[in-house]
Amino acid sequence: MQQFLADLKEKKNVRESLRGLIDEIKGNPAESKEVLAALSKDAWCELLGDEDAKSRKNAATLLSLLPWSHADAADVAEALFSTYEKEETLFVRESYVKALAAFDCKAHLDELQARFEELTNGDFPEEDLKHIRKERQQLGQLLEKLQEEKGHKRKGLPRGRKWLFRSEPWLLDLLQQDYPEGKRLPFGLLVEGGNPKALIENRLYEQLLIQIPQSKNAPIHEDDFKKGFAQCGLPAILSELFEGDKPFAFRLDIYGKYENDRRIALMKQAAAALEDATGGRLYNAPSDYEIELVLFPRRDGSFGLFLWPGDLGAGRFAYRKNHSAVSMAPQKAAAAARIAKPFLTSGAFRLDGFCGEGTLLLECDRVAKAREVFGCDIFGDAIRGGRENAEAAGVDIHFVQRDYFDFTNRVTFAELITEFPDLFHKEPGEKDEFFREFFRSSMELTMTESTWVVITAEENLLKKYVRLHEQLSLKLQAPFGKEKALYIIRRQEDGLDEH
Length: 499
Prior knowledge:
Layout: H1 2-9, H2 14-27, H3 32-38, H4 41-46, H5 53-63, H6 70-86, H7 90-100, H8 109-121, H9 129-146, E1 162-166, H10 169-178, E2 183-185, E3 188-192, H11 196-201, E4 207-211, H12 225-230, H13 234-241, E5 248-254, H14 260-277, E6 282-284, E7 291-297, E8 303-308, H15 330-340, E9 349-352, H16 359-367, E10 372-377, H17 380-393, E11 397-401, E12 413-419, H18 428-445, E13 446-456, H19 459-467, E14 472-479, E15 485-492
Parallel strand pairs: 5-6, 5-7, 9-10, 9-12, 10-11, 12-13
Antiparallel strand pairs: 1-3, 1-4, 2-3, 4-8, 7-8, 13-15, 14-15
C-alpha cells in the first residue's frame, strides 16, 4: 500500500496505484483512513482530471471509498459531479455516477434527472449502447436513492388478466381442484380472470405471476427481443399496479433446460433489450430490484413473459417470523391442512410430536380450531421460534422442549399431526426402532378414538406398524412431494369408525 501511495505522490503509475488502493481498501476497509491522510483533499480531487481515462475511472471509485469529513465530502461530491458533466469517454461516466451514490448530491437532482431523460429518449450509435445502458442503470439507481420514497406506491390489482401459479407438481394438482378451468403448463397452472384478491390469498402456491400479453405480430423471441418487448403489454400492467412514472429496477430470469453459460447469455441479451425497448424506464438491477420478470420458453421458440410485482402473496404467512432450513414450507403445511381437513375436528386436543417452529399446527388451526394445542420438539431454537410464530398468529400453543418419545401429558389427545424427521441416513434397524418408539408413544398419548396425520417417506414401515396394531386403520394416503406421502390413520378400539 505504501508503494501505491508513494507513486501517487510522484504521479507515477497512477492507474495501477489507484487500482491497487481500491483492492486494498475493499480487502481491509480500516486502511481507508491511512489512505485518505496520505494526500490532501485537493490532491485527491486532481486525480479526476488525469489524462488517462482508466485513471479517472479508478479515481472516482477510490474517492467514494474514503472516509471524508462532512465538509470535505460536499467538496468531493461537487468535484465528482463537475467532472462527470465534462467527461466525454463513455465507459468512465458510469463510474462517476456510481461514486456519486456515496455522497449527498440532492442539490443536483434536476441535472441528474435531465441526464437520465437524455439517455432514455436519445438516439445513440449501436457501438455506444453498451456504455449508455450502464450509465443509465447507475443513474436510475441513484435517482431512486435521492428521491424520498423508495420504489412505487401500489395502486391496485389488475383485473381480467391471466395468472400463473408456480409450485411443486403435487401442489399444482391441489390448486387445479380450486381452479378446474386452469390450464396446466410445464411451469405452472395458468388461470384466467377471477377475483385477484382471492387468487393472491390462496395458500398453496409458491409464487404467483401475471402473464404479460404479447403482440401477435411481434412475439418475444431471442432473434429480436427488443421488438417483442416494445410491443408487449408490460407498461399497461405496470400502470395498473403502480403509481408514478419513476424508473423500475428489475431482475430478469429465464426458465428452461439451458446450459448455464447459454442461460446467462440469454438473460443478459434479454435484459439489455428490455432496457432499450423501455427507454431505460426499466433498468436491470439483479441485486436490488422492485419487480421480477420471467421468461418461459415455448415450443415454437418464442417466450412467454410473466411479471412478479415483488410482494404478491407475501402476507399469507406473515406469522412466520422464524424458520430454519429444515422447516416445512408454509404452502406445504397449508396443503397438509387442506388434505387432512375432512378428518379434523374443531375443539379437539391436538399434538405435534416433531413440531419445529409450529407451521403445521398453525395451518391446521386455520381449518379446524383446536381446543388445546401442544407442540413438542428437542430443539430449543425451534421451540423459541415457534412461540414467537404462534403469538404472531394469535394462536395459543403449548410448546415443550422434549423428546417426543419421553413426552407425557395428563390429558390424552384426539388428534396427532406430525411430519417425521428425515430418516434417509439411518440404517434399516434404526428406522425400525424409530417407528416402534413412535407407535408406542403415540398409543400412550392419544385417545382410544383418535386421528393421526403422519407425513413420512417410509411407506413400508408405516404400513407395517399400522398392521401390527389392530386398533389402527389407514384411511387415506395422499402424495406429499416426490418421496413423501401424507397418511390419515384412525384409532378405534372397538373396530367401529364413523369417519
